[in-house]
Design brief:
Helices cover about 40% and strands about 15% of the residues. It has 14 helices and 16 strands. A hairpin with a 2-residue loop joins strand 12 and strand 13.
């Protein structure tokens, strides 16, 4: 069964083939660590985790690198405004270093709560200044860079395939509302190195051949990806907001510097929306993961919710669908518990059909809504092993569900209750159900398999 992904650069689904056998180089754009991540941001990281888990399940050895943007991301993608981290540091009356490390730590806590596997390599922009300067030197010496009063810029007119990710050329880019830096040749030209402004105090600045300053936002990803994954690697993923600027610029500067194709497969996750609008810090319509926890939700409820929409489709967020996701996740946990208690022997034909349909959904561009539908289709017929196979992708920690030890006294009551049920003495049967409930257990009558006519699910309260 071959994996197929929607490759943004070609605007179609393509069969996946790694550059080096079963080894996959995988780069994901990490957070700009100036505030807490919101759940819209975190949806992208869950999608990337599903992608990585799927590659693992299909036998690939994934080398995953994620950057930490701790310098250089300005308040405007058009290289204007303040450095987000420096601005937040000034607001909090702390250093930019302290602010960046704090929010980096909070982001990593969110990943853990959501059961998102950490990358093999965390790459901080501030720890790779030399690599970024070296890459800029190559671009400068090759004629791709020019200097103006506030920094060194990439000349997009020199790169003939600029805008390839969008399937359009520079002349077709929407630039009518873009605020441009004075002196730029074209609005879409972007900063490689920004100069520290006279009289302005920055916590983060470095000497360079062009003047004291700091790297532009885009150059960090190219420099760090190529350092750890090579000049040409397999997969680069991120949110769709990165397509028109950040990833388009990454491709231009990387391929201009090396003369080689940068990445084979570009995958992008769509937005989380609230009332039809993208969730975002700038819009003030966001929630953090901790805020959901304070409302009484488990972080994995949100993880489940994200699985109900395809990663390339918008996901409309509100509390009611999150409640439904919470109930569905708990139901899955109950099903695993049932399977433990029933010691169900799964029919081999059923097992094979389930696995084939589940893997088929994954292989078709990570179709998680279809994969969930397969799980629910077979939920009453599969056992613990099948649920745990699915959870290698779902990441809902179903492996943490353990068999319940039923006390002997409750077993006696269950036997007596079953005798009443056979006699259709529902009054006494219900009395025993309540007695068992008062002892800390819930009884549900359910048919899991044709060989189990009256199976009793036990769940600790």
């Amino acid at each position: 069964m071959n994996l197929r992904f929607y490759n943004t650069i070609h605007h179609k689904k393509e069969g996946f083939r790694a550059i080096s056998g079963k080894l996959v180089g995988f780069y994901t754009c990490g957070p700009t660590v100036y505030q807490y991540a919101h759940i819209g941001n975190l949806r992208t990281y869950i999608f990337e985790d599903i992608l990585k888990r799927t590659l693992d399940l299909f036998g690939y050895n994934v080398k995953h690198v994620m950057n930490i943007t701790d310098v250089g991301h300005l308040t405007s993608d058009d290289d204007t405004g303040e450095d987000k981290i420096e601005r937040e540091a000034a607001r909090q009356k702390k250093t930019a270093w302290i602010v960046a490390r704090f929010y980096e730590g909070e982001f990593k806590k969110d990943l853990k709560k959501l059961n998102i596997a950490e990358p093999d390599k965390w790459a901080r922009a501030t720890e790779h200044i030399k690599e970024q300067i070296d890459l800029i030197k190559k671009l400068d010496s090759s004629g791709y860079a020019y200097k103006i009063s506030d920094g060194l810029y990439f000349d997009t007119s020199r790169f003939k395939n600029y805008g390839e990710l969008l399937k359009i050329g520079p002349k077709d880019l929407e630039v009518s509302e873009r605020i441009t830096v004075q002196g730029k040749k074209k609005p879409e030209d972007f900063a490689l190195w920004k100069f520290s402004q006279p009289g302005a105090k920055r916590d983060m600045e470095w000497a360079s051949p062009w003047g004291k300053g700091f790297p532009g936002w885009h150059i960090e990803c190219s420099a760090m990806a190529m350092k750890y994954l090579g000049l040409h690697f397999d997969i680069h993923a991120g949110g769709i907001d990165h397509i028109p600027v950040h990833h388009t610029n990454e491709i231009a500067q990387s391929e201009a510097a090396t003369g080689k194709k940068f990445v084979n497969y570009w995958l992008h996750g769509n937005f989380l929306q609230v009332d039809g609008k993208r969730m975002g810090k700038s819009k003030g319509n966001y929630l953090t993961l901790d805020e959901l926890i304070k409302l009484g939700f488990d972080p994995l409820d949100f993880r489940y919710l994200t699985l109900t929409a395809h990663y390339r489709s918008p996901l409309h967020f509100s509390i009611e669908p999150l409640k439904s996701a919470a109930n569905a996740r708990k139901h899955l946990m109950n099903l695993v518990q049932r399977s433990y208690q029933a010691k169900l022997r799964v029919n081999s034909k059923v097992r094979i059909k389930f696995e084939n349909e589940f893997l088929s959904a994954l292989s078709n561009d990570l179709d998680m809504p279809k994969a969930l539908a397969v799980i629910w289709k077979y939920a009453e017929k599969i056992g613990v092993n099948e649920f745990l196979l699915a959870d290698k992708i779902l990441g809902l920690r179903l492996d943490k569900v353990k068999p319940i030890k039923i006390p002997p006294g409750i077993k006696v009551l269950l036997k007596k209750r079953e005798e009443y049920r056979i006699k259709e003495d529902w009054k006494n049967s219900d009395k025993i159900r309540e007695e068992i409930k008062n002892m800390g257990f819930i009884v549900e009558d359910s048919s899991i398999d044709q060989n189990i006519t009256n199976f009793l699910k036990m769940q600790e309260l």
